[in-house]
Amino acid sequence: MPGALLYVGCPKGNVAASVFGFEDGKLRKRRRGRLPACRISVVSSAVANPAARTSEERVYEVVLKQAALVREQKKTKKKTVDMEGMSNWDLLNEAYGRCGDVCAEYAKTFYLGTLLMTPERRRAVWAIYVWCRRTDELVDGPNASHITPKALDRWEQRLSDLFEGSPYDMYDAALAHTVSKYPVDIQPFKDMIEGMRLDLRKSRYQNFDELYLYCYYVAGTVGLMSVPVMGIAPESKATTETVYNAALALGIANQLTNILRDVGEDARRGRVYLPQDELALAGLSDEDIFRGQVTDKWRSFMKEQIKRARMFFDEAEKGVAELNAASRWPVWASLLLYKQILDSIEANDYNNFTKRAYVGKAKKLLTLPIAYGRALMVPTSKAADQMRS
Ligand SMILES: CC(C)=CCC/C(C)=C/CC/C(C)=C/CC/C(C)=C/[C@@H]1[C@@H](COP(=O)(O)OP(=O)(O)O)[C@]1(C)CC/C=C(\C)CC/C=C(\C)CCC=C(C)C
Hints:
- A 3-stranded antiparallel sheet has the order 1-2-3. The chain has a two-stranded parallel sheet with strand order 4-5.
- Helices cover about 65% and strands about 10% of the residues.
- The chain has helices at about 55-75, 90-105, 110-115, 120-140, 150-165, 170-180, 185-200, 210-230, 240-260, 265-270, 275-280, 285-290, 295-320, 325-345, 360-375, 380-389, and strands at about 5-10, 15-25, 25-35, 205, 270-275.
- It has about 400 residues and is mainly alpha-helical.
- Strand 2 (about 15-25) and strand 3 (about 25-35) form a beta hairpin.
- The chain is globular.
- The chain has 2 domains: about 55-80 and about 190-389, Farnesyl Diphosphate Synthase; about 85-180, Farnesyl Diphosphate Synthase.
- The structure holds the ligand CC(C)=CCC/C(C)=C/CC/C(C)=C/CC/C(C)=C/[C@@H]1[C@@H](COP(=O)(O)OP(=O)(O)O)[C@]1(C)CC/C=C(\C)CC/C=C(\C)CCC=C(C)C.
- Keywords: Carotenoid biosynthesis, Isoprene biosynthesis, Transferase.
């Protein structure tokens, strides 16, 4: 069975490849050592067919491209594009204000976290949030049943237009300004739309490689969109690839957690996101999921799935300290809160069919100062540097 490769950037342009795959029915993490970045395509989980590119390899190419874009921006300061009709600062402020309102309404804790960022960064993150939310609403919102691939094509055209400086409405205008100000690339946005297309036509995932690609599309992309805005700490010695990999890992971890939390809810919509081959290996099938009985087989299967999601959280944690100081708190808060959903699934004795795992108010409140404390930590790469000298 193919394992999932997660490439973790290392200093000096090398990458270490970690494989999160199943062996003998157990999840194993295997470090494959460091390799020059140019040799990445050689390290593949598709050992049986070396010519085939895995999802991880395809996604890693996007990661490298995003990291390169940020490095370029460091060398040549990009000029802020003044969009036609948007040179009016009042209008622009109004546009960002509306994005803030949406964020405050739909993601309260996250919104509070963004208040710690610099005003420029905060409003840029809001603009990205609103675009992601609107994109997700197309397939998950009240009008989702009417959404066709054509509608998604139109949404993509609209995206291209806003990247060209021709926004359709106020929310788009805020994002158009953000992408002209920060080295944000269109690719992760397009990829998120691709994820929505996938959701329209696919309701089963044969293996983790397929699921990984889906998770990248709908959530890993959010990490890649956010890093250029949140910024990397000036004192960080980590490579940009390392930081992007951590951001990608956080998106994947969040989405895997989402999937594990919503097994019952998704099943009622006829959807099973869990890898079919891993279900079969555990002696389970779609029917067991539709039946919704917590058996020992289900518990051991879930234990392995949770373990894998935690591994992605672990990879993500390595990168948070490398972010700009003011951006770390909301990231730590969202990471710790989402990770606790996994604890809650365990506390529910793995009944994710009829019990919704959630983090209670008290735990949420306790998490915020913990996240704040972690956000004060200096970049790990700098700390390592200090220990060496
Ligand atoms: C600081 C911070 C967390 C910034 C991200 C803000 C942002 C732009 C969020 C967009 C979220 C969104 C609406 C995505 C649409 C697709 C979707 C629904 C994805 C799922 C999120 C959960 O959403 P939902 O509202 O359905 O959740 P509940 O059911 O209400 O629980 C996802 C699971 C994905 C979310 C993914 C992220 C937030 C990525 C986080 C990664 C980073 C911010 C990079 C951090 C950098 C490093 C170096 C670690």
